[in-house]
Design a protein that fits this description.
The chain is α/β, with parallel strands linked by helices. The chain is built from 7 helices and 5 strands; from the N terminus they run E-H-E-H-H-E-H-E-E-H-H-H. Helix 1 (about 15-30) links the parallel strand 1 and strand 2 (about 35).
Length: about 190
Amino acid sequence: MKIFFTCSRTGSKIAKYRTLDIAVLEELRRLKVNIESTIERTYLGPTSKFKKMLNLTENESVYKYVHDSLVRQVIRQSDAMVIEASYPSFRLGFETYFALSLQKPVLVLSQSKNYANLIDQPHFFGAKYTDFTLPDEIEKFIKHVRSHKLSTRFNLFISDEQKSKIDEMSKQYNVSQSDYIRGLIDKDL
């Protein structure tokens, strides 16, 4: 399982928030998941084209769009995303939106706010955590991702009437057609 872990770049420069970021990273490591992270810049990859990005300056014109395109690439390749958002940032919001648009499960952790109470999306999870509850919050999310990770493809033929109903219900519940069908099956499980 591949998890993309991200946090505020500005916040990571402040000791208090860097400590929180490292705690989340260590907890993910303890659960033995494959991690790509912005804090360690592992998403830059081993190729020479991206290796030079390891020493980026703060000058935005030097790395215009490179970070964004690399992060989007990693999100596409990941099974889920974990965010430490105690120090919020615009970039984290965009990355969250991008992952949700790909229907990737997203866990947003914060010591000050439970973001799950703000966004109503089936793949969005949030938790206000303490040092004591952090391991439980992350483990609960990883278990969810593992149990819902899709690994089997199944095709079928349906009638036009069934297709219309699926279209209607997916719009009503604001989920993909596949998620709607999976939800019906999950209810019977």
